[in-house]
Predict the structure.
Amino acid sequence: MARVRKFGKPNLFITFTCNIKWKEITDTLLLGQTAKDRLELITCVFNLKLDALLKDIKDGVLGNVIAKIWVIEFQKRSLPHTHILLILDEASKLRTVEDYNSMVSAEIPDPIHHPKAYKTVTSCMVHGPCGPDFLNAQCMEQGKCKKRYLGSFSEETCCDVDGYPEYRRRQTRTFVDPKTQCVVDNWWIVPYNLHLATKYHAHINMEICSSIFAFNHLYKYVYKGPNRVTVVVERWVDTPSQENNPQAVITNVEWQNHDEIKAYLEGRYISTSEASWRLFSFRMHDGTPSVTRLAMHELGMHMVVYNDNANIFETVNNEQNQKTTLTEYFQANIDYPLARVVTYMDFPSVFTWTNGTKKWTIR
Ligand SMILES: [Zn+2]
């Protein structure tokens, strides 16, 4: 949020998903293997592609980016994907319908002029199928697609009341999706950027954030935290009457001694692809420019990190461990007259925090 306070709301939102059909993956598989057998390969290739995409963004393919954040996500059993929020400088900001159309398209590309983008969009950027013939589709709610696909064709891009751009979807071309045998027209296309769809053969959705409402939604999405599970630990006992039943039952005595609170443990759900990503110690999120995380706590109620073998009391009582960005903000107010006219939130723009010495010094 510090970046948004300084640079303004994000302008572009990108979702980039790993594609197991990338040549780098398929060419490396051994005889009889499928990509799902090689999670380490999937995660390594995706990490390299993400680096390439972040470099492209840094080099200005989408305009001059003054701040960005990105987060890696793993849904249960699915492939790694990343969400990227970008803030553009004044000269690169999108203002006109022409700017919008040049940055994001929601139409099937011309197969003659843009064959690579055509291949990407027709194989990776098709929503659904949903609609009246597919009422059980995940996106269908009360007979409507909650992701706002399936409207009427429109000649021009415009903004709706919630600040969501309604991208131009002209009645130009169609194709038959080989996976579903459905005829796909421009209403099924997930918005994309032509340059990125040409270069990265993957699901690479790009949206324009045009209002603060959209931005709030995106930040919640980016920071919504990991999936969690609740597991129950119980002792199962075979009984003679259940000989033919492969499932065992808990005896009455055990039920009476059963402590529900003790038995439930909350845990994080980690998919196999996330486990593989973490084994390689690949980054989970990042942002530029860097920000100083400010501690917020009551007196003596701050977090102290200690190693497994350390003496907890010694660690907690260590003088350096008593210092946080907040306690030292008060100390800086005693030491520097300048500090007294800067709020805690704005402190990192005037003072620098050094973690080693636990001190604020004037920039
Ligand atoms: Zn839908």
User: Anything to note?
Assistant: Confidence is low (pLDDT under 50) at residues 245-250. The two ends are 22 Å apart (CA to CA). The first strand starts at residue 12 and ends at 17.
